[in-house]
Amino acid sequence: MLFLSRKTNRLLVISVLAVVFLSCGLMRETAAYTLFSDDFESGLDLATKWKTETIAGATWVLAGDASNKFITAQPHMGAGDRHLDIVTQKNDFSDFTFNWSMQFKNQGWHVDIRHVCFRCGDLSPIEAHSGYYLIIQAQNVFTNHSHIRLMNYRQTGPNYNLVSMDLGPNYFELSKWYNFELEAIGNSFNLKTWEQGSPYPNNWLFTAVDTSSTPFNSGRIGFGDYWGGITYVDNVRVDSPIPEPATVLLFTCAIVGLGVWRRKIRVEPKFMI
Question: From the DSSP assignment, how many helices (H) and strands (E) are in the chain?
Answer without folding.
Answer: 2, 18
